[in-house]
Amino acid sequence: MVKPRSSLRDLVVERMIDGLQTNNMMKAVAAGIEVVEHYDGCFSDDNAEKNVGLRLTLANLLVSVRRAPGDLALSARLNRKSLTMLPPSMDNQRFRINSDLSATLSSLAQEGGALEPGAEVTVSGLKARPELNGGTGTIVVWYPDRGRYAVKVGDAEEVALKPINVGQTAEMFDEAYLARVREATDIAKALDPDAGGQEETYPNELRELKCEALEKAYTALDAFTRVRTHGAGDDVSVKATSAERYVKVHDDERFSGLKIEICEALDGAAFKPAEQVQARYNWGAALCRAGRIEEGKERYEQALEMLTNPGASGAERLRKDISGSILLCDRQISGEQPRTGAFIELATGDGPRYARVVNGGERKE
């Protein structure tokens, strides 16, 4: 006699629970994935708490244990759906679920670029490997430090490709990446540690979760700056210096607006002591790029006051950067320099040592 579909599903769910109870997390993940793929992610038909609880457990394991290509995106989908089906008895967990969702979306942007791992793409525009053009591949992972996707082509080979070589223009890349960070930021900002009905009775712990979610959004946004400065998404024929790319990124209101929002929500509180100066400096840069020169100068001055260890690695260079930015702000406020698009030169005894793009741009030695 053929077992009913629900009975077969229940066997898989039991396998997942057994994996959890025996600390065999990979077994639990494999069973959970099977429920998602073959049973529409329904772990129980008549027990809402069990259904949602196991969905949330799987979402957590995908991020904290397995983290294979596609796991971050699946975790985000599971958390999103769980928020729409929480039974009243689990509503007190909404804060944590949103916190996890925000952090996952930031990680997805930083590690997945603008395409989800597992997405199928068409390869084009390659000169070194023209035989791959027109073929299909699968996104494996995004390398933010290189501005490339690892793409699996054929049965086993992986190649590192620019976004433009998998059909993404610079604008498409920017829009998708920033949309993820925007969603992560909005979710984190909406978290209210002081709201009633929370699972925990420790609002300070919940505030820490909110700060962690915002800090991850900030980190993802910071990674976007590095990626775009090195030309992710651009056609190989486009010639632009890193400084020019930097200015273009920071002139994008989507970017500068997000950085200001995150910094204002955090106000530097969540950053490690060693990172607080740079974070305050970046906040000032974002304000200045948005034309809010007076506010930007104030953040620069705060950053300078916070720079209490001048002997630390890179501290002298950062001090000069901050001082140069304050000087430029003064010139912009007085009208000596335009409020946008200005440059400043810092001189040594032998003449200009480097030209610096206003408010945090690349130094040209």
Concise structural overview:
This is Tetratricopeptide repeat protein. With 365 residues, the protein is of the alpha+beta class.
Any overview of this molecule?
It comes from Micromonas commoda (strain RCC299 / NOUM17 / CCMP2709). This is Tetratricopeptide repeat protein. The chain has 365 residues and is an alpha+beta fold. Among the domains are: 1-86, no CATH class; 115-167, Roll (SH3 type barrels), CATH 2.30.30. The chain has twelve helices and seven strands. It has helices at residues 5-21, 25-38, 48-66, 71-84, 94-112, 170-190, 203-229, 242-250, 253-266, 273-289, 293-306, 315-334; strands spanning 120-122, 136-143, 148-153, 158-161, 343-348, 351-357, 363-364. The strands form two sheets. The protein has a four-stranded antiparallel beta sheet with strand order 1-2-3-4. A three-stranded antiparallel beta sheet has the order 5-6-7. β6 (351-357) and β7 form a beta hairpin. α2 (25-38) packs across α3 (48-66). It is globular and about 75 Å long.
Mean pLDDT: 82
- Compute the separation of the termini in Å: 78 Å
Global shape: globular
Number of beta strands: 7
Give, in order, the helices and strands. Answer: HHHHHEEEEHHHHHHHEEE
Helix content: 55-70%
Unreliably modeled segments: 233-238, 342-365
Structural class: alpha+beta
What spatial order of strands do you see in the largest sheet?
A: 1-2-3-4
SS strand fraction? 5-15%
Main beta-sheet annotation: 4 strands, antiparallel
Alpha plus pi helix count: 12
Radius of gyration over all CA atoms, rounded: 24 Å
